[in-house]
Amino acid sequence: MRILLYILIMAIFILLALLLKDKSLIITIICSLIIISFVLNPMVCIKGCISGASLFFYKVFPSLFPFLIICNIMLSYNGVYIYSKVFGKLLCYPLGLPLNCSFALIVSILCGYPLGAKYSCDLYEKKIIDYKTCERLLNIASNPSPLFIIGSVATSMLGNTNIGYVLLLACYISCIIISFIIPGRVHGKKFNDKKNISQSFNINLGNVLRDSIDNGIKTSLSVGGFIILFSVVNSIIKNSFIFHFILEKILIIFKIPKTLSEGSILGLMEMTNGCNTISSCNINYGVKLLIIGFLLSFSGLCIIWQCNSFMSKHGFSLINYSKYKVIQGLLCSLVSYILYLLLYNNSVVTTFKENISISYNINLIFITAIFLLFILPVITYNLKKHIQ
To answer: Where are the transmembrane segments (predicted)?
Structure first.
């Protein structure tokens, strides 16, 4: 059986090499492989599906669905204009974005993937921002939520809440750096204040609630579908002898721990499982942060495809988006490691369960750093404006 599967895999790779330009044929072959895996290992696929469904219904849906409804209501009642007035200069000027983008940025900061991408596309669909601005905003407003980083990754997985502040700060710094790398730092169109405010008074609350709930259900189910699909694919890959064969070769060549290589590979597919696997590795803490920092900003193929479900209908490039996510992941990885060395150079951490001793108040340092991170660019911008 294994020999036949090896021959099948080789034949598929040959076909992929010969027919690389034929997307429909490649997708058909990949789907056929998944069907074959389902037939050969039904329990593995069923467990993967149940695991993905449990993750969605018990962890993702309860927080995602109400947040979607509230955000949709705010969009209908001119929330974008209000947020742009209150937070626009603080958030958007340092990132080279028009004030109208502040709503999507705040949603990204509060709730994380994939809502930043969704509301970036919503702003474009409502003609609040133009195509080029939305293209930049998609990458800048795609970040993990503080609750996920500090709660799930740092506290639950790594066993140290303070490390979450380091990872969160690294994500914000890499986001600001990527805003300078992505071309097109321009200012978008302005709001017609009176027109927008007067229109918001004429909207029927019942219709807004109905449309917001419909949109929330549709978006939530779409996200849930991706989570379940990638959970099944992850289960197939994790239990595949081909995966273990490749893993063994990697271990022999690079001499790295099995859980580290397994977590890194699976993390590229779905970041939560990857971060969880890597956090349990008995390796240097700095190396853990290097890989976890990359996975958090890269987000994994599961979330990238969730974002693409909002982007594709407007013609935004998935390749271009993915390219900048890789760059942001590398930046976050590097910044995470540097911050770890600066803040924890007197600490000794060897295992997952050990606590890190800190000689000063990291919360105060984190708050100060965030303050400087947003205030200094605004001051610099205003100085340049006055000089010019």
So the answer is: 5-20, 26-44, 56-77, 97-116, 163-182, 219-237, 285-305, 326-344, 364-383
